[in-house]
């Protein structure tokens, strides 16, 4: 199979990072400037399209030839840009993405980071950022540059030559990365799933522009009102200014911590010396809630077809290969809890913000509730939304052979009630509304959510969001849950021992259900039943003084600090990785099946799929039946899904 390695340098007046590649290539001034490529081990060629050069006929032909594998680092960009510039279809089945490959192996998702971690001889040219800024994004007009808003090659021929060499070097580095990664191939079925992911991102999901524009206008009007009231009370020119506001509060005898952050606000409100000061603090608190980030992201990302594209990143969420959100971040949308969503969204769309506030209270609340409803079906369609029922609880019970839990899922499925009955030794039938034992359901639910991954009292506290349980009960509830689930507890320790043994002895250790830990070439792999593997880079066994034992340490990206660093892990966390990865594979299997049955997936959130279905075709029953089908590589895993039909996206 011939491999064609590609890297592009482009220009567009649209901000790529904020708006996404599909919006980026829609700009009238979008163009490919440089097209660098190399076949297999041949020298890298750079075609300067600004000099009226054309791609060789062979390259142009091979861009659509299924016998030639096209590859790029972050291939979604190259695919989309090439399709737009040359007016051709770039079938993702013919492409491979080395960024996805790197993420799958627990490596950074950016080229420079991968090259550094792999210690390649070929490294990305550090001058690139400055050259991209000079030639590939608009510039500010100044007297020095003659008032132009864009730099062309003739404005600095020397820099342009550097840009050509930078483009060439990227292909050199990307090819070397690919060669290194080829030792650890990704299964073909995962590349087919990635191709489906690309089709979903290309398809996009329709947005309601009237709704998100009205939401932005409502928020602006409300914030102006709050600022004006604060201005009248304080006499400050800008009550939003932290410096001005802290000085005003200081004059009132109220010392304020740095930032006036929300965690200090209750204490400040209690300490307010008078009603005016208290009201200003309340206004400050309210202004901090007026966030329409999601709506603004929609306004930036929406394309000419009224759809947002490229919202999902394959293999973006750590080493489990789960999807991550991009642009609008659909993976962390607020839940909706008001009952009359349709009335609320129509009131907002009408622009009657006063009525909206009368009906629902302060705008920040209702605007948050309506974010999901901005996603709407295509003309003549409705959404079918379906998700797996308690998928992680099912998978962990299956992995651990916790038979009583599997029996629950194969029967009535009421795992919270059954867990409470098992923990407290009461009849299952008594945990129903109206019976005194029904209060135990909340304890069972929190325990299921908190304890499966070796969580203790702190995990119980985090999951007890409604604060239905006395914190003094947490330690006892953890013990009771563990006593009721001995095989899951056993799984934590067996999993950690398997991983540690595999690294220490540089061997392979088998667990149940096709899971095994395998040490190979300086990497620890957790082989999954689906045929793919989780990867832990540079695994080492180091003493853990906190627990007075040896533990597993590996290198990886810190998702909060955004840096490559060492991580310590343990049995419960390893099991969490396995469970979430297997749950992800179940979703992937269902997505492939739904696609084969003709359903158009427009997005998916965690364990839920959103389908754009023409009215008169398909059904919830059919969709949930597909998602509940047995999976060959997971015999005995009881899957079940539930769904609903809706005219706009919402949480059922």
Automatic annotation (TrEMBL):
Q: Which InterPro entries match?
A: DNA-dir_DNA_pol_A_palm_dom, DNA/RNA_pol_sf, DNA_polymerase_A, RNaseH-like_sf
UniProt-listed SMART domains:
POLAc
Q: Name one Pfam family in it.
A: DNA_pol_A
The UniProt keyword set, sorted, is: DNA replication
Q: Give EC number(s), comma-separated.
A: 2.7.7.7
| Record field: catalytic activity | DNA(n) + a 2'-deoxyribonucleoside 5'-triphosphate = DNA(n+1) + diphosphate
Q: Sorted alphabetically, which Gene3D superfamilies does this protein's record hold?
A: 3.30.70.370, 5' to 3' exonuclease, C-terminal subdomain
Query: Which residue intervals define the domain DNA-directed DNA polymerase family A palm in the entry?
Result: 368-617
Question: What name is this protein filed under?
Answer: DNA-directed DNA polymerase
The organism's taxonomic lineage, starting at the top: Bacteria, Bacillati, Bacillota, Bacilli, Bacillales
